Amino acid sequence: MKATQCFYNNMAIKQLYLNGFSHHLCGSASRNKASELARRACELGGLSTLAGRFFSNNLLASAPGSRNRDFPLLVTFWAFFSQVLTRNASCRAAVAGVQAWRASRNTRMPSDGTSAYCQARSRLPLDCLRAIFTAIGAWISKHDSGDALLNGRIVRVVDGTGVSMPDTAANRKKWPCAGNQKPGCGFPVIQLAGLFCLQSGRLIKFAFGSWKERESVLARQLVGWLGKGEVLLADRGFCGWGFMALLQRKGVDVVFRLQQFRKNRPGRHVWEKPRRTESWGKRLWRELPAQITVRILSFDVHVKGFRSRRITLCTSLLDSKAYPDEALIALYMRRWKIELFFRDIKTTLGLDVVRCQTPAMVEKEIWMQAIAYNTVRALMLEAALSHGVSVERLSFKGTVDMMRTWAGCMHHDKPGINKHLLSELLLAIASEQVPLRPCRAEPRCRKRRPKDYQYLTKPRHAMAPFKLRRKKMTTSALI
């Protein structure tokens, strides 16, 4: 046996391919595997070169006297970043990227298991992720010199969405399933409210809680990140007396869609302070004014495909000369952009279903998704400023694809080469502009049919196994 093994080893060294066999049986797989390892090695270092420009590297510095681990803070962060930048990327793919990166640097590679990487992710300080998120947002805010959208006023937009997660006991305890779900058949759900900049698409701040918490209640946690003199744009779910009074108390004007149960006619109206609800604290409710003055206006929508034909707006901008009805109507028609912002986060980056198994890691994954989203937005803003194009015409999905592809090239030690590659990348991002299609209407239908599987109506272990019918295979069917 030993002699036979030596014979095959010698034969493999002297002759790569067997006589009479095609080279596709042996050579292609090896070359593809080698190129995949090289790509992963370059991607991990390229992402840090490309995206690490938007915040200080000191935020990822390891503490003095810390252990020499296979996954230090710096490596863990960028492996986690590359994982959330690719939808449905597994922990095994992140570990493979670290292995390839260490192999390219001739250092010791970690093992193939994902346990060490998962433990390293759990050690990521949440304060560090928050600081990086704040630093990237500050970079965007500093370089965003776009024109104000409403008479010199900065406009912010807020809305809510839902996020699902794995059905584990720990997740269910922190975030229960929806009330209409049968035990063992649903998934824990997070209600998330996000505050965005309407001009640049930057995610300013977000708050999340149980599905039982309303979006307007979560939005109160975001009031501190609104500046005096700004304008907040939102849908009818946020048009409550308390929330509007809280914003006016801080000097923030609103343009909301009027709630359906209010029947005010167009014009000025004075809303008296209603009775306090359970969601408001007594002290904060007493500090709110006794009444607020609002302005109501209505308009008809004649765009084909729009569900609403008559829309009524409620605003605290009482000066009709400085803020005419046409300007407020045009501003509200841009509110749909926040739905596209959430689509970029949930569909492109994959936040619609988080994959972590514990509440602590679910929270970190949400923060990492927010960091990745703002990083892409920062790169889009940099491309728009460099080449004089509108940031609204740039494709988020295209920027993510180019970012992942070009990261494999930006790993050189010479800064001049990386600078040249960065300029070419920004040119490529600015060149791929989405068509300008205002008021585009398409049917809200799916063309691809779903699989014809029955729904889970009881816990999986209690479901009876499917009866498989075996088809009789005849000789004629096999020929």
Commentary on this structure:
By secondary structure, the protein is of the alpha+beta class. The chain is built from 16 helices and eight strands. The protein has helices at 2-14, 27-51, 73-85, 91-104, 115-122, 126-143, 169-174, 215-219, 241-250, 282-287, 325-332, 337-348, 359-387, 396-406, 415-431, 475-478; strands at 155-164, 189-197, 203-210, 231-234, 253-257, 267-272, 291-300, 310-315. Strands 3-2-1-4-5-8-7-6 form an eight-stranded mixed beta sheet. Helix 2 packs across helix 3 (73-85) and helix 14 runs antiparallel to helix 15. The longest helix has 29 residues, at 359-387.
The overall pLDDT, averaged over residues, is 83
Spell the H/E element sequence: HHHHHHEHEEHEHEEHEEHHHHHH
CATH class categorisation of the domain at 151-348: Alpha Beta
User: Residue ranges: pLDDT <50 for 5 or more in a row?
Assistant: 1-31, 33-41, 467-479
Query: CATH homologous superfamily name of the domain at 151-348?
Result: Transposase Inhibitor Protein From Tn5, Chain A, domain 1
* Strand numbers in spatial order across the main sheet: 3-2-1-4-5-8-7-6
Give the helix proportion (percent range): 40-55%
**Distinct helical segment count:** 16
Strand-residue proportion: 5-15%
Tertiary shape: globular
